[in-house]
Amino acid sequence: MTALLLIDVQRGFDDAAFWGPRNNPAAEANIKALLGAWQARRDPIVLVHHDSAEPDSPLRPGQAGNDFTAELDGARADLVFGKRVNSAFLGDVDLDAWFKRRGIGSFVLAGIQTNFCCETTARMGGNLGYDVTFALDATFTFELAGPDGTVLSADELSRATATNLHGGGFATVTSTGRILG
């Protein structure tokens, strides 16, 4: 059985003034397509939200930005929980134990941000022995400056994540169309 794991699909990521330029404007439509397919099949769906402790973060609990986006309205989730770090495996719920109790050995991962919470969760899932499918076109991220001040675009960071996950054997990196095809 394959679960759908949606990471941090939250309204706070709409704050362009806070986050900066993003990539992949089709991510939300692809997330919604994956969710619709999993709901139609009644396969397991897990929704995770980031509960930031940073005082200026739009993802702080109790703020509108902590809420899921409209694409998840009406979602029939089997599990919903928060986390305060990048990996969903280190959240308020023991996701590994939850998967194992249900006989779930594989998951499709999508959400926000490609190179942080999504990539970290995929790496941990791979390390824990799960068959991880990373829906790259159902994720997005933002440009980011490195330690030397060089700014990498969101597309460059997304490509680096795909390379890291593929090259490291952590996940199968593919598209929403191939997953649903």
UniProtKB/TrEMBL annotation:
Gene3D superfamilies with a match to the protein in the record:
Isochorismatase-like
Would I find Transferase among this entry's keywords?
no
Name all Isochorismatase-like domain ranges.
2-143
Record-linked InterPro entries: Isochorismatase-like_dom, Isochorismatase-like_hydrls, Isochorismatase-like_sf
One Pfam family in the UniProt entry: Isochorismatase
CDD domains in the record: nicotinamidase_related (cd01014)
Any single GO molecular-function term of the entry would be: hydrolase activity
Q: Which UniProt keywords apply?
A: Hydrolase
PANTHER family on file: ISOCHORISMATASE HYDROLASE, PEROXYUREIDOACRYLATE/UREIDOACRYLATE AMIDOHYDROLASE-RELATED
The protein depicted here goes by the name Cysteine hydrolase family protein
